[in-house]
Amino acid sequence: MDATGLKAMQAPLKEAYRDDASSALVTLKARGSIDDQSIACKVETGRALAVAGLHPATGGSGLELCSGDMLPEALVACAGVTLKAVATALEFKLGAATVEAEGDLDFRGTLGVARDAPVGFRAIRLNFSLDSDEPHERIDTLLKLTERYCVVFQTITARPELTVSAQR
């Protein structure tokens, strides 16, 4: 897809959202069920059933997906799609590109071994390898706009309001 095709595809959406801001608000949902045989959660992805379990560093077998791994994977997916869309819109000459995310976890926090150890990622690093002859300023713009429009990146950065509830 080129910039013209992308703009043509998105133009009616942008116009509708400008005319009625409430039409831009979409609630994305995820649903899972707790496995009754093992410590796992079956997550309905819309494409397949993903079974998430404990990370090996917390006693898991490594056979199931780990939500800790899924977070950087979601970041890579979102940042990669956003990078490609921004590059397309900017008519940025981009050859091959790879996106990598890695994050540091101290599993003492998750396992309750050390109260001073955080539960969750201490740091997350996002890296792009770009095959491009574009000038440094254009690469900076590409990365700045990718950060700005990547939903997962911005969600991690902005810390949205979170609520927890339970029903019986």
Number of strands: 5
Query: Pairing-aware structural class of the strands and helices?
Result: alpha+beta
Q: What separation lies between the terminal Cα atoms?
A: 49 Å
- Rg over CA atoms: 20 Å
- The spatial strand order of the largest sheet comes to 1-2-3
Fraction of residues in H or I helices: 25-40%
- The best one-word shape is globular
Q: Compute the average pLDDT.
A: 93
Our count of helices gives: 5
Provide the low-confidence segments as ranges: none
Largest sheet: 3 strands, antiparallel
Helix-strand pattern, N to C?
A: HEEEHEHEHH
What does this molecule look like?
There is one protein chain. This protein is of the alpha+beta class and 168 residues long. The protein is built from five helices and five strands, in the order αβββαβαβαα. The strands form two sheets. The protein has a three-stranded antiparallel beta sheet, with no helix packed on it. A hairpin with a 4-residue loop joins strand 2 and strand 3. The longest helix is centred in the middle third of the chain and has 23 residues, at 67-89. The protein is globular, with a radius of gyration of 20 Å. 11% of the residues are buried.
